[in-house]
Amino acid sequence: MDWLDVKEFLKDTFKYIIFIIAVLVIAIYVVGLQQVVGPSMSNTLNNGDIVILDKLSYRFTDIKRGDIVALYYADTKYLIKRVIGLPGDTIEFQDNKLYINNAYYDESYLNDSVYTDDFTLNDLGYTTIPKDMYFVLGDNRGDSMDSRDSEVGLINKKDILGKVRIQIWPLNKLKIVK
Questions:
Q1: C-beta separation of 51 from 78 below 8 A
Q2: Closest by Cα among 21, 38, 29 to 56
């Protein structure tokens, strides 16, 4: 083995190392895969669906009402939910209707059979949502562990892993998630 072979070997090895580092950076900081577990987001997303998360955009833009996000819950669990309440908002369910800041909010993405018990933020001990906190719900309100549950409660911005962008599995349901 001569010097040119060693030089070529080192050059190729360096390229592979750079490629692996780039893939790791993208996987950790830019995008991720998440599997939907449970029925809480049906009919929008169903148990077993796999989605791509955008982990980068919330570093530069605000979280918006209606965004579907993946979030940390407990030490080992992740949840996928829809952002309903933003910092400073008041939230209330009355007669199966959502009111944000005392104004009716139409949730056209829900199917008609969704039912929610009456609820206000006071049930969690708040009058308004504090800074850097969010109120999240599953689209299947009758079968969702979400911010209405005191065990979950309001979600801190730092616990939001990313925005769900694309459903990639099952393949026949490939779509941009809204």
A1: no
A2: 29
Which ranges of the chain does DSSP label H, i.e. alpha helix?
A: 3-25
Q: Which residue has the tokens 């059979």?
A: 113
To the query of whether residue 108 is one of the catalytic residues in this protein, the response is no
Q: Are 137 and 82 in contact (CB under 8 A)?
A: yes
Q: What is the C-alpha separation between 138 and 114, in angstroms, rounded?
A: 10
Task: Note if the pTM is more than 0.70.
Answer: yes
**Which is the catalytic residue, given 55, 81, 147, 163?**
81
Is 11 tagged catalytic? no
User: 172: helix, coil or strand?
Assistant: helix
Q: Which of 40, 55, 147, 163 is catalytic?
A: 40
**Position 114 pLDDT exceeds 70:** no
